[in-house]
Amino acid sequence: VSFTASGAFVSRHWYPPVPAARHWEELSGAALPRPPSFNDPWVSGKPAWLRALDPLTAANVTFLEEIHRLRLRCMRAVDEMVEALVSELDSLGLSDSTFILFTSDNGYHEEVHRMGSGKTTAFEEDLRVPMMMAGPGLAAGSKVVTTTQHIDIAPTVLALA
Questions:
Q1: What string of H, E and C letters represents the secondary structure of 69-102?
Q2: pTM for this entry
Q3: 121 near 86, Cβ under 8 Å?
Q4: Residue 131, SS3 per DSSP
Q5: Which segments of 4-58 are extended strands (E)?
Q6: Any idea what the Cα angle at residue 110 is, between residues 106 and 115, rounded to 5°?
Q7: In Å, how far are 3, 54, 67, 156 from 10, measured between CA atoms?
Q8: Which residue from 88, 106, 108, 107 is spatially nearest to 98, judged by alpha carbons?
Q9: E strand intervals along the chain
Q10: 82-120 b/e (C-beta count within 10 Å ≥ 16 → b)
Q11: Which residue from 16, 21, 57, 63 has the fewest beta carbons nearer than 10 Å?
Q12: How many CA atoms lie within 13 A of 118 on its CB side?
C-alpha cells in the first residue's frame, strides 16, 4: 500500500494468488459465487462511495472468476497439508487425544455490491471468519451459532488442554 507524505492513500499493490504447480489446472469449472449482493443493482440505500461505482462488466466478472479459481487452487495445498497432519496423528495413535483448530482471516469479497476483490468493508461478506475444530468429544458437523471473536480462542484452547 502506498501513501503520500500527508498520509493520503495513493495505491495498493496487488499480486494474484499462485497455486502449487500440481494444482494449476484443477477446478477450471468452479463458478464465482453469486449471492444476492452480486453486482448489486439495488444501491439506493448504500453509502455514496458505493452508489458511485458502476456495475461490473462481463470482463470484470471473468477476471474475478479466474481469481476465485486461483484462490481455490491455492487451498488445495492447504487441504493436502491438513490431510497429512491428520494421517500422521492417526499413525502415531494420537487422533483420539488431539484437537485440531483451523482458522484464518475473513478472506476476500468478490463482486459483491459492485465491488471487485477486497476485504475492507463492514458488509456481511467481509465480516465472517472461518474457524473449524475437530477432536475428542466434538460431534462431527456440529456448529456454534453464537458470535465469537478471536479473543475467545486462547481461553478455549486452554480449557481443552
A1: HHHHHHHHHHHHHHHHHHHHHHHCCCHHHCCEEE
A2: 0.77
A3: no
A4: strand
A5: 9-11
A6: 110
A7: 5, 21, 23, 41
A8: 88
A9: 2-3, 9-11, 100-103, 109-110, 117-118, 131-134
A10: eeeeeeeeeeeeebeeeeeeeeeeeebbbbbbbbbeeee
A11: 21
A12: 13
Average pLDDT across the chain, whole number: 86
Contact in structure between 113 and 35 (CB atoms under 8 Å): no
Q: What is the pLDDT of residue 8?
A: 66
Return the residue matching grid coordinates 471473468.
62
The C-alpha angle 91, 72, 41, rounded to 5 degrees, equals: 145
3-class DSSP assignment, residue 115: coil
pLDDT for 13 equals: 64
Question: How many CB atoms are located within 10 Å of the residue 65 CB?
Answer: 16
- Which residue from 12, 112, 117, 128 is spatially nearest to 68, judged by alpha carbons? 117
| Most confident among 58-67, 88-97, 105-114, 126-135 (mean pLDDT) | 88-97
- pLDDT digits 0-9 by tens, 45-54: 888 988 888 8
Amino acid at 99: F
Question: Which tens digits make up the pLDDT trace of 3-32?
Answer: 666 666 666 667 788 999 999 999 999 998
Report d(CA 74, CA 69) in Å as an integer. 9
